[in-house]
Design a protein that fits this description.
Elements lengths: L7 H19 L6 H8 L3 H4 L6 H16 L9 H18 L1 H9 L6 H27 L9 H22 L5 H16 L13
Helix pairs in contact: 1-2, 1-4, 4-7, 5-7, 5-9, 7-8, 8-9
Length: 204
């Protein structure tokens, strides 16, 4: 009886999913092509029909993650509400994919240039959304005169990234709403114009 070959797209995703699980469980450096092929239930030669090596799998994992982690456009009537929505969305995506985040950052020293470039583009695209909101706040004279748009973007992304990193390292449970409230209030306190009060119930 002739062997039924799976659709190439299905097989490729099967290899990708299996490799990701093995990388997370054992570490990228401790997993071989043979390990992946055996777990999928295919021959090593079949593996090479889809991937040249396991590093190429990591590239695809990051590309897929970038699509998954892409943040939605912020919602809300005020800049404060939009920043809050953005922070909640990013923290929820981080929490839902924390194993993959852990893998990517754990293996950062061995990432190829392609992976590093893709991650940099992802960070730039996400920062662009924040920059658009901060620019709107600047045009509406909501920012402190001594705070530039780039400074405000840096403060927000740095605080959010630092907190996400702390949660990752400590393997903490995360309440995205509470964490976002804390981060955005801290950011707003540092970038707002002196005449603008902190919101009492997520308004500005």
């Amino acid at each position: 009886m002739a062997r039924v070959r799976k659709d190439p797209h299905v097989r490729r995703n099967e290899i990708l999913d299996t490799a990701q699980t093995l990388f997370i469980e054992n570490g990228f450096m401790n997993v071989t092509v043979n390990d992946i092929a055996k777990k999928v239930g295919i021959a090593r030669t079949t593996f090479y029909e889809y991937y040249t090596d396991k590093t190429q799998i990591l590239v695809d994992m990051v590309d897929r993650a970038i699509t998954t982690f892409k943040i939605s456009l912020p919602q809300g009537d005020t800049i404060y509400q939009k920043l809050l929505h953005l922070a909640v969305d990013m923290l929820n995506k981080f929490d839902a994919n924390r194993e993959l985040y852990t893998l990517v950052f754990r293996e950062a020293p061995i990432l190829s240039d392609n992976i590093s470039e893709n991650l940099a583009k992802w960070r730039y695209d996400n920062a662009s959304i924040t920059r658009a909101m901060i620019t709107e706040a600047h045009h509406n004279q909501l920012l402190h005169n001594e705070v530039s748009i780039e400074d405000a973007v840096f403060i927000f992304t740095a605080l959010l990234g630092q907190r996400a990193g702390d949660i990752l390292i400590a393997d903490e449970e995360i309440d995205a709403e509470t964490e976002a409230q804390h981060i955005v209030k801290l950011v707003w306190r540092n970038i707002k114009a002196p005449t603008i009060n902190l919101p009492t119930e997520d308004t500005s």
